[in-house]
What does this fold into?
Amino acid sequence: MTARLEVIVGPMFSGKTELLIAKLHRAQYARKRVRIIKPAHDTRTQGFIASRAVRPDGTTEVTDTLSAVMVRTEEDFERVAGPGDFDVLAVDEAQFFPLDEPLRDSLGWFGRALRRLLRERRASHLRIIVAGLDMDFAEEPFGPIPGLMAIADSVEKLTGVCMICGSDAGYISQRVIPGDKQLVVGDAGEYQVRCRSCYAPR
Ligand SMILES: [Zn+2]
It folds into this structure.
């Protein structure tokens, strides 16, 4: 019996949230108490996590949702996770939890809080499942995700379909509208999944 950290990464539209939701449905069938949190920086979906399917015309539709608690600060996190009344803690879009300025480590307050929780409840069935983008559109490791991948028990790296050549090796979300700000929350139309060969470095 030991606490576990599972990390799901990949580009946009690679099915990360779909996989997260599937794992959570299974946990709920097994009568596990599930708590879901999201960074409050994601302005697309407030209060729930949503898996999306891309239609042939490039637009997206929401296929499944589960309600989530929005977390902006470490205090918010402590309010949600502090009571410890859950068996599974799920986090979606975790790349938006910021690292420290100046940079202190590769976890930031959020990654350190998860590590602390895993230490405190190490001899338990606690499962923490984190999903997020492993890279931003400039091919840089994104927020606390690389650090979380390092301390995880398991990492699932998903791929999408490259929107240029159609290969199944889409590994990055290429930004196709101008701009340099990392924290732009995009959707289909602003970003395209591309393979390494079709990705155009900026
Ligand atoms: Zn390609």
